[in-house]
Amino acid sequence: MDIRLIPISLLLFLGLGAGAQTDGGLTLNGVQLKKNEKGRNELSWNAAASENTDCFLIQRSADGRQFRTVGKRTAIKALEDTDYSFVDMSYKGNAFYRIIEVTTEGKALYSSPVKREEPSKRNRAKK
Prior knowledge:
This protein has helices at 8-13, 121-126; strands spanning 28-35, 41-47, 53-61, 68-74, 82-88, 95-103, 108-110, 114-116. It is mostly beta strands. It has one domain (25-117): Sandwich (Immunoglobulin-like), CATH 2.60.40. Strands 3, 4, 6, 7 and 8 form a 5-stranded antiparallel beta sheet that branches. Strands 1-2-5 form a 3-stranded antiparallel beta sheet, with no helix packed on it. Strand 6 (95-103) and strand 7 form a beta hairpin. It is globular, with a radius of gyration of 16 Å. 21% of the residues are buried.
């Protein structure tokens, strides 16, 4: 049997390593997406304590493949896990989101995409 290992850095680059960690990297936990009380998409996540993280970039996509940056959160240099959130004020409706953690060395750690999808009007009428 031929087993080939894929470097974690490649998985992270491809966005396939949510929760994965590289040397000195930060692990993102519990990435959640919901519709808030004003109908806006609200993304929340938790990050393990680290002094190596510079910021988090928030990206949105309509199709889950092509993403564009729609927000940024500066990392908090803390000794404990930290909760973060982002409300997308420029968009309502179905979308995919992902978070890119940028380290102080300029490396990027991608979360897996999360999707918010409202039931269609037809499905809502059946309930």
